[in-house]
Amino acid sequence: MMFFEPFQLPFMARALVELVILGALAGTVGVLVLLRRLAFVSDTLTHTVFPGVVIGHLMGGDGGIFWGALAAGVLTAVLLTLLTHRRRVSEDAALAMLLTTLFAVGVVVVSRQTGFTSDLTAFLFGRVLTVNEEQLAQTAVVTVVVVALLAVLRRPLLLRAFDPEGARAAGVRVGLLDLVLNVAVALVVVAAVKAVGTILVIALLIVPAAAARSLSDRLAVIVPLACLVGAAGGWLGLVVSYEASVEHGVRLASGATVVLVLVALYGLAHAAGAVRRKVGLSRARRRSVLEAA
Amino acid sequence: MSERTPTLVLDRASVAYGDVPVLEELHGVVHEGEAVALIGPNGAGKSTLIKALLGLVPVVRGRIEVLGRPPAQARRDVAYVPQADTLDPDFPVSVEQVVMMGRYRRIGWLRRPSAADRAETAEALERVGLAHRARERFGTLSGGQRQRVLLARAIAAKPRMLLLDEPFNGVDAVSQHALLEAIGSLKEQGASVVVSTHDLAIAHLACDEVCLLNRHQFGFGPTGDVLTPERLRATYGGHALELRGDRVIVTQT
Question: Which residue, A28, A43, A211, B44, has most beta carbons within 10 Å?
């Protein structure tokens, strides 16, 4: 059984648990990112966490990565919220500057180390096969915190995403809510650094949510579906990269393979969604013809 | 009429975004069960006044009182109806869910909607004539129907004051009729209504009072008294034409 066999190896089992949890977490948060059209803001966050990762590693080795990323993530989430609430600055230009500046800081710091290309690759693209139990625990804690936060705030978050003026009029503290979502995105990035690196997280956030959206118009379906697609992508990605590397001698980086599998799942979902809409339309047409007759 | 409780008091009020004054010297009173139309050209400050009534834009001079309180403290009893076409039609929410948003304040963060919440939602949709579309996605409805759904959301919140921002823009006749009916029944139940509009006919039809605005106030009072050719010409500048002495066409809004 190629789908389960590899995971008898302890490091593969840990990688599987990490990616499945991460996929589910990113899927959930991703739905909100999609609804709020925050893909670029989220992408900025993935880059601004990077210098935190580098500095954390410098100060505390592998164990320092999480805390460095956490500090940078929360800090830049606050910064981004302030930035996007000041309408005078052209928003995407400001984001692009912030993104590249902090990313460059990270690269400069890491390039002062000897053997930095290996570190750099690990920070950017992750090394899911070396995930240890402590990192698994960190991912689990982040997942519980973020999911609980979003569950409690689901109504104001939904109202704010759908109708920001209406939310303000209803007394919702929009600025605070936006900060919460930005911090949630930052936390997903932090949790994902070890597994897929800072660059590929954005795919984990966007792709499962987009796939779920093309299959359903109902949030009650979209959220669990995005979780499922995220988790399935993690699992299948690992299987594919393991099979290719071990059975066929083609080395595939696991993080990137997960992303490609996710995109393939999105393709399937999109096709299925197109068929569903066509069937729905012709049904509606038939119904209206019947009603007219 | 004057024995009724005043629900909106504008007392020489000026409203500003930062240092830029948008509206100056507003003065007038609206009572419970009355509707006031805000009329003026684009950029006159109608939307800004609505935001000021929600406490989202500060009053820099004078005083605005909503339901006897400063605007920001009255929000609980005030419902706002945005223009439907400002909302994303692709957003995955059903009509029912949108109306339920009007109940969010009462439901709170954690509780599930109660039977009472569901009943209020259903009744509000009934009142705008869209109960049969409850399960459909909001964005699949026509512009006028979406506007009615947003009014239903406001009704479900059981407000004492209703603020509508250009609800009749690009709305078909059926939806316009449904909106006017629903607004009328809210008034009968004692709610006050503030509605910004370009449409003088609707102001005549639905509103007891009119506030003519263009940065300053050009008149505030009973519809028949205020909607005069002279005042409309003053409000709209050169863009008002007089017809047969007693009618006015506004050529540019």
Answer: A211
Provide the shortest C-alpha distance from residue B68 to chain A (in Å): 18
**How much is the mean pLDDT over chain B?**
89
Which tokens go with B220? Answer: 């505030």
**Distance between CA atoms of A257 and A291, rounded to whole angstroms?**
50
Q: What's the rounded mean pLDDT across residues A140-151?
A: 95
Amino acid B15: pLDDT: 92
CA–CA separation, B168 and B145 (whole Å): 11
Q: In degrees, to the nearest 5, what angle opens at C-alpha A172 toward C-alphas A170 and A176? A: 165
Contact B93 A162 (CB under 8 A): yes
Q: Which residue of A has its CA nearest to B104?
A: A155
Among B78, B91, B109, beta carbon nearest to A162? B91
The CA distance from A57 to B198, in Å, is 62
Coil, strand or helix at A99: helix
Residue B1 included in any domain: no
**Structurally, how many domains does chain A consist of?**
1
Query: B36 falls in which pLDDT band (50, 70, 90)?
Result: very high
In-domain check, residue B177: yes
pLDDT band at residue A208 under the 50/70/90 scheme: very high
> Which chain A residues are closer than 8 Å to B107 by Cβ?
155
Mutation to test the B interface, candidates A217, A219, A283, most B Cβ within 10 Å: A217
Mean pLDDT across the stretch B160-182? 92
Contact (Cβ atoms closer than 8 angstroms) between residue B37 and residue B195:
yes
Q: pLDDT tens for residues B97-154?
A: 999 999 998 898 888 999 999 999 999 999 999 999 999 999 999 999 999 999 999 9
Helix axes A39-85 and A91-111, enclosed angle (nearest 10): 110
pLDDT number for residue B245: 46
| Mean per-residue pLDDT, B81-91 | 93
A158, B137: Cβ pair inside 8 Å?
A: no
Domain containing residue B47: CATH number: 3.40.50.300
Percent of chain B's residues with pLDDT above 90: 66
What mean pLDDT do residues A50-73 have?
89
Structural domain of B70: 6-250
Contact yes or no for B104 and A218 at CB 8 A: no
Nearest CA in chain A to B111: A152
Binary contact (B163, A169; C-beta < 8 A): yes
CA A17 to chain B, closest CA, distance in angstroms equals 30
Which chain B residues have a beta carbon less than 8 Å from that of A155? 101, 104, 107, 109
CB A235 within 8 A of CB A24: no
Task: Name the nearest CA neighbour of B28 among B221, B234, B231.
Answer: B221
CATH number of A196's domain: 1.10.3470.10
Chain A touched by B132 (CB under 8 Å):
no
